[in-house]
Amino acid sequence: MFSLLNAQALLGIVLILALCWAMSEDRKRFPWRLAIGAIALQAVLVLMLFGIPGSQVLLNGMSGGVNGLAAATRKGTQFVFGYLGGGPQPYALADQSALFVFAFEVLPLILVISALSALLWHWRILRWVIRGFGFLFQRTMGLGGASALAVAANIFLGTVEAPIVIRGYLERLTRSELFLLMTVGLATVAGSTMVAYATLLAPTLPDAAGHVLTASIIAAPAGVLLSRIVVPEKAGQGGAFADYTSALNYESSIDAIARGITDGLAVVLNITATLIVFVALVALANVLLGAFPDVAGAPLSVERILGAVFSPLAWAIGVPWEEAGKAGALLGVKMVLTEFTAYIELARMPVTELGERTRTILTYALCGFANIGSVGIVVAGLGVLVPNRRTEVLDLVWRALMAGFLATCLSGAVVGALPEALFRSTPAASAGPATPAGVVP
Questions:
Q1: How far apart are CA 185 and CA 162, in angstroms?
Q2: I need a labelling partner for 294 at 20 to 30 A (CA). Which of 9, 84, 115, 348 fits?
Q3: What is d(CA 362, CA 349) in angstroms, rounded to the nearest whole number?
Q4: Structural domain count of the chain
């Protein structure tokens, strides 16, 4: 049954579109057809994935493929780093969660994806896949083949791995396509982290795995829509008009793997250094804010300030006002730190503080890499992959952060506008996935 909270979420959809229109480089060109189509596609996907019996079998299959790649990567990590990489522990553990180390669990996947993508490129498989996606998305969303593949890849890969997949085309992307690539990358999450999120949320949210995977899927059309509003494509550029002829070639399969590893290693090193600096800067800002008097009985922090700022947005996407303060704080934590930290905080909140409806909406609104640290990752990654366009990346990246953040909020608002009973009576089992190394429910 349609309620005031559903109407509230519809208002949030309008608000998000208006905010992106206010940031637009060309306010006279609003993609009305794309807006209607993308939002309708999000709603249809959610209805299909949670309203049709047996649909999660397909979702679990796709997730299993991504998890298989992550598991294979973990084998190599454990071979090199032993117990530090998640191998058999030589001592008793007091805190199992301490085993999850970002440097060992996530960064090595970039090396494997980089080498695998180069190999598939050399075998011409990716080139044919790009043509197929180009045909599909040129008919539906007006995207070129490279952009289309990057959008699809971002559903399961990260902000750096997806650009690596289309590395041969990065120089030829238009300004709007480059912005789209960055926005969708920030609006989605990687398959290697989906399992961890789902495991964290499973004790307090039924069908957590299905929600997390669905959130990453429907964030892709949301990211495309908002990126097209903020940086519209100019007439006669991109899409069917783009020339994606690439000069990228490898001498052999071994050469492709070796050069892919080298490219991936450069990206990993840049990401590592950037994350250290950005997290340190946020911590430094909190130290400085701590010098001010307490406000409402607690010290000031970047997270608290942003939480207060985002409370109205949390309400607008369908969260009841009495829970909007805590929901807004989580949105602030997601932007300033990471969505991983926000999911941990969400999982720790007692069910008496946040209802199931709010938890479901936040699962979608938090499911994206749109945070300040990821800005550094995007700049570092694209700076290595396409150094000639680094200035352009720097010019676009902060708007891409806002568009990517609002794209996940748009997903949350779409879910908030749908009947709540849809998620309370999901046909799939609510059991979470197998617990990955280093993460405990």
A1: 8
A2: 348
A3: 12
A4: 1
Structural domain for 114, as ranges: 4-424
Question: Is 201 within the bounds of a domain?
Answer: yes
Placement of tokens 């002829």 in the chain: 245
Beta strand residue intervals within 284-354, DSSP E = none
**Alpha carbon distances (Å) from 53 to 49, 56, 211, 412, 423:** 9, 8, 15, 23, 13
Rounded to the nearest angstrom, the gap between the alpha carbon of residue 104 and the centroid of all alpha carbons in its chain is: 20
Cα-to-chain-centroid distance, residue 119: 25
CB-neighbour burial class of residue 47 (10 A; exposed 0-12, middle 13-18, buried 19+): middle
Amino acid at 350: P
Residues in contact with 179: Cβ distance below 8 Å, sequence separation at least 6, in sequence order: 227, 230, 231, 396, 399, 400, 403
pLDDT digits (tens, 9 = 90+) for 135-170: 666 666 777 667 777 787 777 667 777 787 777 778
The two three-digit tokens of residue 248, written as one number: 């990228």
Q: 282 Cβ partners below 8 Å, 6+ apart?
A: 302, 336, 337, 372
Residue 226 has pLDDT above 70, yes or no: yes
Q: Is 433 inside a domain boundary? A: no
Q: In the structure encoding, which two tokens stand for residue 259, read together?
A: 């050069």
Instruction: Give the number of other Cβ atoms within 10 Å of residue 32's Cβ.
Output: 7
Residues comprising the chain, all counted: 441
Contacts of 316 (CB under 8 A, 6+ apart): 8, 9, 11, 12, 15, 16, 413
Q: Kindly give, in sequence order, each residue whose CB lies less than 8 Å from that of residue 352, ignoring residues fewer than 6 positions away.
A: none
Classify residue 14: in a domain, yes or no: yes
Q: What is residue 389's DSSP assignment? A: G
Q: Encode pLDDT of 344-393 as tens digits.
A: 788 888 877 888 888 889 999 998 888 887 888 888 888 888 888 888 99
List residues bridging with 295 in a β-sheet.
298
Residue 438 in any domain: the answer is no
Q: What is the pTM of this model?
A: 0.74
